[in-house]
TrEMBL record:
Belongs to the polypeptide deformylase family. This is Peptide deformylase. SUPFAM superfamilies: Peptide deformylase. Keywords: Hydrolase, Iron. One of its GO terms (molecular function) is peptide deformylase activity. PANTHER family: PEPTIDE DEFORMYLASE.
Amino acid sequence: MVKQIVRDQMFLSQKSSPMTTMDAGIIADMQDTLAANQARCVGMAGNMIGYKKRIIIVSMGFANVVMLNPVLLSKSGAYETEEGCLSLDGTRKVTRYRDIEVEFQDASFAKKRMKFNGYIAQIVLHEMDHLEGRII
């Protein structure tokens, strides 16, 4: 189901709780809402649609990747950039990293480990910030 985008900064500034198999229904809502906003959005975190759960979805161009309970394992290549967010107006300066490695569970709750670089790494980091209640 397509959900409305949350813009309440008080809600967005709260840390998210771990995803469990009981929360699996959220995955479809994330996929539907990202698809409905694809013209202006390349990633989304659970709290952006009202779920304080550790789930993100990232558009890789050819496919959307769902990451449950992601953990940043490594980062390198710091740089400054400006980002916007569907939940906020305007853009803000932020530090990101060119190369990252993340451990997470996929939509079937199987453990995965992936490396990302460039723009995809930036999107993943932005969405992971949401899970920590960090607003850019």
